[in-house]
Specification:
about 625 residues; alpha+beta; Chitinase A, domain 3; five-stranded mixed β-sheet; 22 helices
Length: about 625
């Protein structure tokens, strides 16, 4: 059977223009002091991977399933706020780092993007350049005196080709490179585009060294139709906008940080370096890299580093103008933003951490400026922050609820005895899984799967669930009610279909459904009683969690849900494309376009038992 991947990764965000301005703000659900609008529903739906989405049309059942999941998220967020869940240091730091990134992005849009202006003369010039392709070769040297000596020789009649051969760094320099509008830095381009074929440029300085280009020939694009001309004009305008944006960014950045100060305590820094280096040495010896020998810091690393630091994690690492930052806050910041190394040596890790401190200071001061300007209070920014707060609070409470559930050996023994008497039909699924600790790894692995790499080989190489990884990621048959969202999602898939990401307490899962069948369970053939008990423990823990969460959400729904506009929901038009979209933020950083949620509808049946008027 042909393999299906229920995921499309793209890197831009677009708006749903099919929603009228009037309908966008229409309320689908009223939940206490919160609402779910049509705009939020559509935005979340469009950018969230969802089982059964890869069909030719979206039915009302699928939209209702998604809406029920969103309602549950809002209700658990309300409850998390009621029980003061934000007093947790881990949650507070995680969400605060995300909020700061949203505020920095708002600052970027205000101070940079809003000031990008293009006049017609600039646009005409950019389009004219885009119609010309130049072929040129170059001489390179890192020494300024040497390159100017070469330039002097060229002026005096020396042969360019002879000097190029004597000074070439690689063979690619001998063949003319193709230069089009936007391929080189603007300062280089401006000189090259006014250099006649057969002539050479003055020495041009870059961060790497000095270049002298010789233009061999040029070609103008001709015989373009209306569509090609329009595409070329749009491309030229995009490049021009990017260049203006970059200039504005550099000017703002230089001016803004001219008076900002921050410093790290040297002794505390090396205390941190020692423990972080120890952790990465362990990762290099025992784990696989995310890509190209690159290792990323993950939540388990942070927990281990903080354990090794003990009370030293509270030492002040960074001193800013208005506040001091302990090691533990800095560690949470680099966990959120991402911290990777390619070498486990102390020197390399110290260098990377030093750079991370510089980036941290920049991020903190920019966020501080955004708050000072009140950008976090702007309606569109508040809306963004609130959406992510709901997700963080609901996810955090669900995780804490799950972690507090215990299953005794007596309960397991009772379950085995009952199952020996009562047998019922269950759906059994068999999957392969790759369990990783970050969305970046999910993106990388899905890319390799799309390129045709074997799922089992990638599972052996990357999956954190070692017992399955040793078997190419295969679980073996299990009831679909086991393993939480993994089992429930597998039940919805077609055989051969791949789906991701599924967020679990262990990380992010990529699964492939190998087979699905209906059977009557029989525990008499299980040889390994210890393995059986652990599977049952997992199953019972999941059942207890599901029951407690369903009961709580149903009670919250009875208390807070005022109205669900089903007719409005049915009228909403959405696409059937599964998309997993990254949003690239101003001043750096990226996040998923919307919080990634998994289907959760079982609470609704519990609510129906309470509220007899529900359909």
């Amino acid at each position: 059977m042909k393999k299906l991947i229920a995921l499309i990764t793209i890197c831009i965000i677009f708006s749903n223009e099919t929603i009228s301005a009037q309908q966008k703000d229409s309320v689908l659900v009223e939940i206490g002091n919160k609402v779910i609008t049509v705009d939020e529903f559509v935005t979340r739906f469009e950018f969230t991977p969802w089982p059964r989405r890869n069909i030719r049309f979206i039915d009302d059942e699928l939209k209702l399933e998604f809406l029920k999941t969103l309602i549950a998220e809002k209700l658990l967020s309300i409850y998390g706020n009621e029980i003061k869940i934000d007093t947790s240091f881990d949650l507070n730091q995680a969400f605060k780092n995300l909020e700061k990134m949203i505020v920095r992005d708002a600052l970027y849009r205000k101070e940079i993007l809003s000031k990008v202006k293009i006049d017609q003369k600039e646009l005409n010039n950019a389009f004219a350049k885009s119609q010309i392709t130049i072929y040129a070769r170059y001489i390179f040297d890192t020494d300024s005196s040497e390159i100017f000596s070469v330039y002097k020789d060229l002026i005096n009649g020396a042969n360019f080709d002879s000097i190029l051969i004597s000074k070439k760094i690689n063979d690619d320099q001998l063949a003319p490179m193709e230069i089009t509008y936007g391929t080189l830095i603007e300062d280089f381009e401006n000189v090259i585009y006014v250099t006649e074929p057969g002539e050479f440029t003055i020495p041009l300085k870059s961060n790497l060294g000095y270049y002298i280009f010789k233009v061999d020939s040029s070609r103008m694009n001709i015989a373009m139709g209306p569509k090609e001309l329009n595409d070329a004009a749009r491309k030229a305008e995009k490049i021009l906008k990017q260049r203006i944006e970059e200039k504005l960014y550099n000017e703002y950045f230089k001016k803004f940080f001219s008076k900002k100060r921050g410093e790290a305590d040297g002794d505390v820094f090396w205390t941190m370096v020692d423990v972080v280096t120890k952790r990465f040495k362990y990762k290099f010896e025992n784990q696989s890299p995310i890509r190209n020998n690159e290792y990323i810091i993950d939540p388990e690393d942070i927990r281990q580093i903080e354990n090794d630091l003990g009370d030293k994690k509270d030492l002040i690492l960074i001193k800013m103008d208005k506040r001091n930052v302990p090691i533990k806050e800095f560690l949470r910041a680099i966990l959120f933003k991402g911290f990777t190394v390619t070498d486990s040596s102390e020197r390399h890790i110290a260098s990377k951490l030093n750079r991370a401190i510089k980036n941290f200071l920049e991020d903190e001061y920019l966020a501080e400026e955004g708050y000072r300007q009140g950008l976090h209070l702007k309606p569109e920014v508040k809306k963004d922050i609130e959406m992510w707060r709901d997700f963080y609070y609901s996810t955090w409470y669900a995780l804490s609820l799950r972690n507090n559930i215990e299953v005794t050996d007596e309960e397991i023994e009772k379950y085995i005895k009952e199952r020996g008497i009562k047998s019922e039909e269950v759906i059994l699924v068999n999957i392969q899984e790759i369990l990783v600790d970050s969305l970046e790894k999910v993106e990388m692995i899905l890319s390799r799967l799309r390129d045709g790499e074997d799922f089992g080989q990638l599972a052996r190489e990357f999956s954190k669930r070692k017992w399955a990884a040793e078997k190419n990621g295969e679980f073996g048959y299990f009831p679909s009610y086991m393993y939480g969202e993994i089992g429930r999602t597998a039940e919805r898939l077609n055989i051969g279909e791949i789906f991701a990401p599924i967020e679990t307490q262990d990380g992010y899962s990529i699964i492939k459904l190998l087979d699905k069948k209906i059977e009557r369970p029989d525990t008499s053939n299980i040889q390994d009683l210890g393995e059986l008990k652990e599977k049952i423990r997992t199953e019972l823990k999941q059942k207890k969690f599901d029951q407690q969460r369903d009961r709580l959400v149903a009670q919250l729904a009875q208390k807070y849900v005022k109205n669900i506009n089903i007719d409005l929901l049915k009228s909403i038009k959405v696409s059937n494309l599964n998309m997993f979209v990254y949003r690239y933020m101003g001043f750096g950083g990226k996040m998923t376009a919307v919080p990634i949620i998994s289907p959760y509808v079982s609470w609704y049946e519990e609510w129906k038992k309470i509220n007899k008027s529900l359909p």
